[in-house]
TrEMBL record:
Oligomeric and partner information: Monomer.
Family: Belongs to the methylthiotransferase family. MiaB subfamily.
Low complexity composition-biased segments: 467-480
Cofactor notes: Binds 2 [4Fe-4S] clusters. One cluster is coordinated with 3 cysteines and an exchangeable S-adenosyl-L-methionine.
Keywords from the named record: 4Fe-4S, Cytoplasm, Iron, Iron-sulfur, Metal-binding, S-adenosyl-L-methionine, Transferase, tRNA processing
Protein name: tRNA-2-methylthio-N(6)-dimethylallyladenosine synthase
Keyword Metal-binding: yes
CDD domains (alphabetical): Radical_SAM (cd01335)
Highest taxon in the source lineage: Bacteria
Any single Pfam family the record assigns to this protein: UPF0004
Classification via Gene3D superfamilies: Methylthiotransferase, N-terminal domain, tm_1862 like domain
An example Gene Ontology CC term for this record: cytosol
Binding site for [4Fe-4S] cluster 2: C156, C160, C163
Length: 508
């Protein structure tokens, strides 16, 4: 009997991407082999429930898969993630060709559910209400040999009125610091040089075991692991952002000068309606203290436009914060009504044409400021972690791409007469051009600065590439080493959708 194959398609936030790595690892462990989306015997859709059109996206994908399944005897379709946790049996009712529905709390059950559905020839729907196994204790198939997610918590204790995620992910559960450290050390031993600490409300870490300073301590501890060069985290909540965390960031060389901190709105009145437990002054004070401690830090954010009841005056307050904070970039969203959230029942929904106008004005301001901030890098050296798949036009422009320490995307030239860097290696170049969303460093083309430092991560990439070329499959090597999004691995194709309304990645 030939080996059965699988494909994981991911929608939504970083936590979903991390879960998809675990899903892939579980299927590898169960004897499946990774395949392309058009050839797989098992297709897993890991869903997001944040935006209003999430349902349409899921059922549209399932409609396309129905014809494939009818022409592919034995093919199975599984649906997991937040939308599965929410809709449950409704998925099988609307798409009876689905074989398995599993939720956010029982990812580890997927192989058994697939086997049960195959034997019984009947759809299996299994949703549990509490986390069974912390995701990081499950097998993983990382798409990047040099960069990894490390989940330190799951769930969220906040009650933001626009966000459905806490109802689907549950209350916050924290891993013990020793378990986190052990995973990081194991990753570094495997060649990883960059980790991103992940949680829906990452800097609330420690709330479950009663240590409000636990996150700052964890940053210092993880940042001291020998061989680990870059530590990032996402996404923090302004309410929980304390001075000890800022100090840990500034004083730990491996912690990168980058902060993604959701704003959502600059209006105190709207923040109160959103049930966000901070106000404009608190947010800007954090930005000021971060910049004082790390002048080179790049600060990014999430902003929602058109929340119910938002007035032009409220919107102007958001623009004021954007001007004051001078974000390196921002994920901007038009408010999307989500059934099951308190905001969906609020009065004063903003007319769509007004939302679109405000959204346009916001994105223009964000882009203008981002470009101004990026221009400051021109003429300066940057250290770039070389990535595989970051630059979509690299072949066309004959450039390579990667991420700077502050997480900006950098496209750089390589001299013709030197060996090419490997993904995972570090390259130091000088920035020659800036755009709102990326930097260009063509210093090497003019005989200027170009330095390569080979790393253990580059060695790991080389090993993974040899393994995939030889047709082998391991739990840590992709069949074709994958791209890195925001300095972190992506899973499946198409690439993960942006987190709608910015709350699945940071229901903060």
């Amino acid at each position: 009997m030939s080996t059965r194959t699988y494909h994981v398609r991911t929608f939504g936030c970083q936590m979903n991407v991390h879960d998809s790595e675990r899903i892939a690892g579980l299927l590898d462990d169960a004897g499946f082999a990774k395949a392309g989306s058009n050839d797989a015997d098992v297709v897993v859709l890991n869903t997001c429930a944040v935006r209003e059109n999430a349902d349409n996206k899921l059922y549209g994908n399932l409609g396309h898969l129905a014809s494939r399944k009818s022409a592919h005897p034995g093919m199975q379709i599984a649906v997991g993630g937040c939308l599965a946790q929410k809709d449950r049996d409704e998925i099988v009712r609307r798409a009876p060709w689905v074989d398995v529905v599993f939720g956010t709390h029982n990812v580890g059950s997927l192989p058994a559910l697939l086997e049960r559905a195959r034997i019984e020839q009947e759809a299996q729907v299994e949703i549990v209400e509490a986390l069974e196994t912390f995701p990081s204790s499950l097998p993983s198939r990382r798409e990047s040999p040099y960069s990894a997610w490390v989940a330190i918590s799951v769930g969220c204790n906040n009650t933001c009125t626009f966000c459905i995620v806490p109802a689907l992910r549950g209350r916050e559960k924290d891993r013990r610091p020793g378990d986190v450290l052990a995973e990081v050390e194991a990753l570094v031993a495997d060649g990883v040089i960059e980790v991103t600490l992940l949680g829906q409300n990452v800097n609330a870490y420690g709330v479950e075991f009663g240590d409000r300073y636990a996150f700052g301590k964890l940053l210092r501890t993880v940042g001291s692991v020998e061989g680990l060069e870059r530590v990032r985290f996402t996404s923090p909540h302004p309410r929980d952002f304390t001075d000890d965390v800022i100090a840990a960031m500034a004083e730990t060389p491996a912690v990168m000068p980058q902060l993604h901190m959701p704003l959502q709105s600059g209006s105190d009145r709207v923040l109160k309606a959103m049930r966000r437990s901070y106000r404009q002054k608190r947010y800007l004070d954090i930005v000021s203290r971060v910049r004082e401690a790390m002048p080179e830090a790049a600060i990014t954010t999430d902003i929602i436009v058109g929340f119910p009841g938002e007035t032009e005056e409220d919107f102007q307050e958001t623009l004021h914060v954007v001007r004051e904070a001078r974000f390196a970039s921002a994920f901007t969203f038009q408010y999307s009504k989500r059934p099951g959230t308190p905001a969906a029942e609020m009065d004063g929904h903003v007319p769509p044409e007004v939302v679109r106008d405000r959204y346009q004005r916001l994105t223009e301001l964000v882009e203008e400021i981002a470009w101004d901030e990026a221009r400051k890098a021109v003429g300066r050296p940057v250290e770039v972690l070389v990535a595989d798949g970051e630059g979509r036009k690299d072949d066309e422009t004959r450039r390579w791409s990667g991420r700077a320490r502050d997480n900006r995307l950098v496209h750089f030239s390589v001299p013709d007469d030197v060996p090419r860097p490997r993904p995972g290696d570090m390259v130091t170049v000088e920035v020659t051009h800036a755009a709102p969303h990326y930097l260009v460093a063509d210093s090497a083309s003019a005989g200027g600065r170009y330095e390569v430092r080979r790393t253990t991560a580059g060695d790991a990439y080389e090993r993974a590439n040899r393994a995939s070329t030889a047709g082998t499959s391991t739990a840590t090597a992709s069949a074709s080493p994958g791209g890195v999004m925001l300095g972190m691995p992506s899973v499946g194709t198409p690439e993960p959708e942006p987190a709608g309304d910015a709350c699945c990645s940071s229901p903060s």
